[in-house]
């Protein structure tokens, strides 16, 4: 079973990767946004969904209490749209697993975590240990963020 | 000026360590070239034609003498003994070694400096009016807001991989000296109907390939909402800005494509979710930021008497008088003047300063101006708080240091990017053109007669030399491997901002001084009494200039 980092630990992944070509929408497969949008209203809440760059999270906003997993894909690490998607999801109340997948790099993990990601599925599984060790990155921050909603100016002693 | 506490220092120190690790992994082959690229850019390191270039952040152009001495030492020990002031008020080193950059950053951190986000597709150094806090026409000092924005934008987790670079400028006077109309976001401190000062927010200005004047997104915003509003704009841009074509990726293209009303609506919608949240500024935080920019201990001087004494001295020694007239500006405190130090002496690349000169400036700042130095987007330096009585002694020292060229605001005080001599993006060299023009127009009396003329030179479309907003703009272009220069006229970076119009077909490098001379003599013939270049151009239009420049030789 593939492995990933979740909440600071290396764990096994019990979800099947998204496959936009698959017609089956089994419960343990992550769905593409198109597949997820095609589900009956009652089924939407039980299925994991993956966002691609250009697919903002607005369609998920009504289901944030129930979604078991949202994955945000980074086909190239320089496309930073997913950072904003993550923050929007967290700011609007999503508390479930928020997973980054694709080709983000280790040096982005700190930023990703601060934007609200709590799970990281790396393109190269061999990097998991090194990535885990590199978190949380820089220990102090100026801004409000998903993992600490108080900006530094509200915390300065 | 702002002083770091343990939080600021921790962030900068840990960033140095992080970058050292990234550099080591790159050198060891554990980070690919493509992966290292944005990481080094966000620490100010470009790889240029001949060597890497390190751009050091000077937040809103403010430096103290200790920092300037450190820059002198770094440019001597790690570079070739000179530094360059950029149009973003930053300092650039042209010859550092990639391997030594972590050490340079560690040196900088000891004097509360860094190179964070001076490059890359992220929020860059916030710039402002070089006369902030001392100008007579200022409504409110913009620097506390610059510092608030600096902290908010530094290592912002959401906006480090934007579609393209992002520049913010703030000014506190309607006489815009920060070119806010030519920025991704421009902020002007303005009163509302009740007289309360807030922020007017412009977005979508910019130079580059498609120059655009910014549009007003919000005509008055309570300052406490500044950061949440900026965050909303950036979020709309980060999600919707184009990523398929780097020439269409700036926010100006998005604002144009959406239309300013639809853009504003999207921002307002995003803002509704952020407004009044924890990122809302507190009165205490604004007061804290302001506390770093209180007036220094000015002496209570008799302004009238000081002025009379100065005038007498100027009359007695006309060279000094000329320098006072050209390079110093009225100060809001009686008995003081603002002093510009021109880095545009003939024979030197515009904006360059040697290590020895940096040390001399540091010394003079301590002696005469409360130990504070400013860099300007015109690529000069400023000593903001000099007693009139001490101007003469200061001038003598500046003369000895080769820093008393009396040309501020005149033709030879040109803005110029490093161009093809250094920059790998450039299509053409810009420094030799600047030098040839400087040499042709070295007669100061002629320059003074011409009055204020802003000449800006860029070596390529990226417009680092702001050619679109120079009264006269020069752009280097590449035609079949040969370097040519296009001229535009009528740009302005001031309150009445405008984009220059292209004169016509481009010229070869050797033609440039003649072309400029023809443009200027056309102006001299057509001007009405005391009419500055830009006004004449706006009155008569481009045609008379075009006719003269492209007239066939008899």
Folded structure, characterized:
The complex is a heterodimer of chains A (157) and B (554). Chain A has 157 residues and is α/β, with parallel strands linked by helices. Chain A has a single domain (3-155), classed as Rossmann fold. Chain A contains five helices and seven strands. A seven-stranded mixed sheet of chain A has the order 2-1-7-6-5-4-3. In chain A, α4 (109-114) links the parallel β6 (97-102) and β7. Chain A is globular. The model of chain A has no long low-confidence stretch (mean pLDDT 92). With 554 residues, chain B is α+β, with helices and mostly antiparallel strands. The relative contact order of chain B is 0.09.
> What's the count of strands of chain A?
7
| Overall shape of chain B | globular
Distance between the termini of chain B: 60 Å
Dominant shape of chain A: globular
Strand content of chain B: 15-25%
Q: How many structural domains in the coordinates of chain A?
A: 1
Total beta strands of chain B:
20
Outline of the structure:
Chain A has a single domain (about 5-155), classed as Rossmann fold (3-Layer(aba) Sandwich). Helices cover about 20% and strands about 20% of the residues of chain A.
